[in-house]
Design brief:
This protein has a single domain, classed as ABC-type transport auxiliary lipoprotein component (Rossmann fold), CATH 3.40.50.10610. Helices cover 30% and strands 32% of the residues. It contains two helices and five strands, in the order E-E-H-E-E-E-H. Strand 4 and strand 5 form a beta hairpin. The longest helix has 27 residues, at 107-133. The radius of gyration is 17 Å and the shape is elongated. The model has no long low-confidence stretch (mean pLDDT 84).
Length: 142
Amino acid sequence: MAYSTEPKRLDYFAYHEWAAPPATMLKSLMERQLDASGMFRFVIADLPGIQADLRLDLNLLLLQQNFDNGSSSVQLAIKVTLAEPGTRSLVASETFDYEEIAPGADAESGVDAANRATGQLLMDLQSFIDNALDKTVCSNTD
């Protein structure tokens, strides 16, 4: 888990680590969120050779805990792009950026703040997809 105590310096907690890489965990949460939404017939991830009507690309830009004067916060930034592979059309793209104040200045507090930021991201992603679907020409999203 990355953290910063001063500008332009990035360190890592020595005795704390994520259960899986953060990008992998976020992707899994987003996949479940979209699958549970009922907006799509199928939500699949990383299946080579499968032709899809829509493709959602996620790029984790930043996930770090920042410490300042005895307090801390977590920054989460992710770029989301929705495209129609069949027509090679970009439907929508947006960068989501969050900063959550942590309840303390330790790794566990950072995880708490990261969880809150992720919850907001999942709600915003749902709205992003909902709005973007109005711009698509594909017919297999019902």
